[in-house]
Amino acid sequence: MLLADLTWPAVxxxxxxxxxVIPIAAVEQHGHHMPVSTDSMLxxxxxxxxxxxxxxxxxxxxxxxxxxxxxxxxxxxxxxxxPRLYLDLLHDLAENLIGPGFRRILFLNGHGGNIxxxxxxxxxxxxxxxQRTDLLLLFGCxxxxxxxxxxxxxxxxxxxxxxCEWETSMMxxxxxxxxxxxxxxxxxxPFGEGxxxxxxxxxxxxxxxxxxxxxxxxxxxxxxxHLFASYSQGVLNYLKQVENWDGTTWA
Length: 251
Prior knowledge:
The protein has about 250 residues and is α/β, with parallel strands linked by helices. The chain has a single domain (about 5-245), classed as Rossmann fold. It is about 35% helix and about 10% strand. Strands 2-1-3-4 form a four-stranded parallel sheet, with helices on both faces. α2 (about 40-55) crosses α6. The longest helix is centred in the last third of the chain and has 23 residues, at about 220-245. The two termini are about 25 Å apart.
């Protein structure tokens, strides 16, 4: 079910144990070959497939295109909310659903910069509602719900990059007219290992001159279809767990 298509009485009448998905993404630079809407478009397609397969069992909120992308602001076209503002935005989106009684909420993420604030939001909300044993607050990235490289040979990457093999493949499948130039001529930008045991504060310009990270030169539309199928099925499988949650199980 799409929240945007329902009347408020219809939303009020829903079983409040229905899993609710809040898709969150971004509008930001994706290298020289991909549109700034990449994250939102790719997550939107995953969500579309999930809704088509489970429309009667899952409620899906409108996709939130504004993300925490300040680390990309050196590249024109990026639109971003500051981290503190973004925390408040996600907090209020969850509260808008908790207020009417929904108990099982999943932020489904499509942008790496949203990970830290997204996890912080569900952590803070759980502290606020610490007496609520019936409340399940979740945050997850769609690419963490499946391992497509274990299902099919030919993938170079083993983790999500940025305008990389995976994202470029999915865009070649979804909207090839928006992929600029010959991706086979692009070159790998290594993921890097940071500075060892400590986490380094970084901006995208520290890691890549072009704006992409990973190996887009190995992207194909065929890989893109497999990625979409694998990720959407992975999300569906996870939502089944959310639907069947007994209210007490931790793992």
